[in-house]
Amino acid sequence: xxxxxxxxxxxxxxxxxxxxxxxxxxxxxxxxxxxxxxxxxxxxxxxxxxxxxxxxxxxxxxxxxxxxxxxxxxxxxxxxxxxxxxxxxxxxxxxxxxxxxxxxxxxxxxxxxxxxxxxxxxxxxxxxxxxxxxxxxxxxxxxxxxxxxxxxxxxxxxxxxxxxxxxxxxxxxxxxxxxxxxxxx
Length: 185
Known about the structure:
- The protein is α+β, with helices and mostly antiparallel strands.
- It is 23% helix and 24% strand.
- The chain has four helices and ten strands; from the N terminus they run αββαβββββαβββα.
- The strands form three sheets. It has a six-stranded mixed sheet with strand order 3-6-7-8-9-10, with helices on both faces. It has a two-stranded antiparallel ribbon with strand order 1-2.
- It is globular.
- The termini are far apart.
- The model has no long low-confidence stretch (mean pLDDT 89).
């Protein structure tokens, strides 16, 4: 395992060797990201599949694709569970193997067993402050998806509530469809 000094720059972080441990850059420190559990993994797969079907030729859907952003004026490299970035914002010809260089249209974070909704809400606010247009926080226990907007209060959706959004006119799904596709009881 690579030994990481306590304060590192963005360049040092991006130059770290790839390992079995995934790190996020937060406040100048490389912090290990937790490995997903079963429901988390199943939700990631279900949402990825549904987004991919709708977003064909409109944008890129990424699983655990790092993003270079700013958080409270400092370099921040979070690794959202999923993201979507439209080709109108990120050229489809981009072929570099690097973190997403712009704030995505949509970031999706799935709450892990040791995370709280409050922690994920704070992270959602950080994403919005960094220029992300929408953030979904998915709660497998409550079977809800809370949508965070830059200019409105969050909305929590469940069951047959539509996740319809003017930014993603092609997306016609409900939380129930996502949780059923994931096989979450």
